[in-house]
Amino acid sequence: MIGRLFNLIFVLLLGGLAAYFWPGQTQSLQNALMGMLAAAVALYTYNIWQSQRLLHWLRQPELDKQIRFRGVWGEAGDRIIRLLKLKENQRIVSEESLRQFLAAIQASPHGVVILDKDSRIHWSNQTAYRHLGLDPKLDVQQLIGNMLRSPDFSHYVHAKSFDREVFIEGRLHRIDRPHKLGVQLFPYGDGRMLLLSRDVTLIEQAETMRRDFVANVSHEIRTPLTVLSGFIETLQMLSLTEDERAKYLSLMAAQSDRMKSLVEDLLTLSRLEGSPFPGNRDWVAVHKLFKTCEVEAQGLSERLHPADKGRQQLVFELPEDNASDELAGSQSELHSAFSNLISNAIRYTPAGGQITVKWARNAEEAVFSVTDTGPGIAPEHFSRLAERFYRIDRSRSRETGGTGLGLAIVKHVVQRHGGTLLIDSKLNKGSTFSLHFPSARCRFGQTDAKDQVAVN
Ligand SMILES: Nc1ncnc2c1ncn2[C@@H]1O[C@H](COP(=O)(O)OP(=O)(O)OP(=O)(O)O)[C@@H](O)[C@H]1O
Ligand SMILES: [Mg+2]
């Protein structure tokens, strides 16, 4: 302020002195006053010009921040430019935070839709597109009721029961491939709403599996229990001969064996699911496993297919070169998987058929396979065979004592050992079930030569 006053005085004095000492003019006070007046007018005109420049600059839609003004207008201009820069920085910071915030919402596994007071879509994320088919650009301003046509959702909106979520079918829902969503509305602000959707397909599937599992287990246990209690009643009510008694007791023993094997299989499955994967430290000698399986297979085959009905031919092929092979993993799990496949082949192949059990190894993998000349399996069953309790022909499987858990156990075991179960079968021709283990899990064993038994 004082500086500007001095400036003014300085300009006036300069004008007065210039007029006073102007060459050819008389040096009078009057001239000096005229000079001061002229200087004041010039200063005023200059100020008007600067203020006009400033106003003109302010009227521009895009302000040029390089422009400079003089005098008091210079300071005003500088302050405006500083303010603008500050605002600009604040805008950039807020835009960046908004961008980050929206990116975080975009990354959310939940569908997020912001609705305005009239329930029109204001903003939605990509997940909302994947869940509900709402296009983040094209569907802005659309009424949510028009976009989500599920009757359950309409009922939910009308009932205004927003303290819970409603379950509707997702965009990708098909009868053979369900897509289920949980959708909930959260009112906020002055009548606006936030819609969140989450994919509950897997949860629903797990729940359905759990229900099916409980139903299957109950059914599998109830059947032999009913038979058993029937026999017990018969034994209690009727006076039977020794032979009849023995017959009933053996039938009862078969039913209790069935229940026992069901419970054992269930326990095996839950052990497989609950225990850590077998590591690479324990090595299982393949030839020993082969030998055990062969002895068991002979016993089972002789029991199921007595000589008078025509024996099955069992062939165990463990090439000499691979007799010392070892597989990294759990002895008991691998034994259970191998013997499950062999017992299936024996049980489902009629008398007189052939069952070939093989071990082969190449650079990429080691393969354990069981081939039979049994009834074969139609391709439509392949994908479901390893499901729990899945049996192609329930009555026939029940006759042979199966619970439908064998292949589920095999699949679990092979996956836990980093391998895969492959099924190849032709109806009325036979089947091959093979377990493929990565070569990283196999090695030529350190077994003593005396201990090596090639089983052919
Ligand atoms: N080698 C095979 N030949 C023909 N069908 C087979 C063969 N192996 C399995 N299956 C079919 O696959 C179904 C499922 O087999 P899985 O081993 O899981 O159950 P299971 O043999 O019925 O009972 P479990 O093995 O629990 O005693 C069987 O019921 C049978 O119908
Ligand atoms: Mg089986």
Fraction of residues in β-strands:
15-25%
Strand order of the largest sheet: 2-1-5-4-3
The value of Rg in angstroms is 45 Å
Instruction: Let me know the number of strands.
Output: 13
Oligomeric form: single chain
The number of helical runs is 12
Describe, in plain words, how this protein is organized in 3D:
With 456 residues, this protein is an alpha+beta fold. The protein folds into 4 domains: 2-101, no CATH class; 108-199, PAS domain (Beta-Lactamase); 205-275, Signal transduction histidine kinase, dimerisation/phosphotransfer (DHp) domain (Helix Hairpins), CATH 1.10.287; 277-451, Heat Shock Protein 90 (2-Layer Sandwich). 50% of the residues lie in helices and 17% in strands. Strands 2-1-5-4-3 form a 5-stranded antiparallel β-sheet, sandwiched between helices. Strand 11 (420-426) and strand 12 (430-438) form a beta hairpin. Mean pLDDT is 90; it is low at 448-456. Residues 340, 344, 402, 406 line the site of magnesium ion (MG).
For the structure shown, list the relevant keywords.
456 residues; Beta-Lactamase; Helix Hairpins; 4 domains; 5-stranded mixed sheet; 50% helix; 17% strand; elongated; binds adenosine-5'-triphosphate; binds magnesium ion
Short overview:
By secondary structure, the protein is of the alpha+beta class.
Topology diagram in text:
Layout: H1 2-20, H2 29-59, H3 71-106, E1 111-115, E2 121-124, H4 126-132, H5 144-147, H6 151-159, E3 166-169, E4 180-188, E5 192-199, H7 201-237, H8 242-274, E6 283-285, H9 286-304, E7 313-317, E8 325-328, H10 331-348, E9 354-361, E10 365-372, H11 394-399, H12 406-416, E11 420-426, E12 430-438, E13 442-444
Parallel strand pairs: 7-9
Antiparallel strand pairs: 1-2, 1-5, 3-4, 4-5, 6-8, 8-13, 9-10, 10-12, 11-12
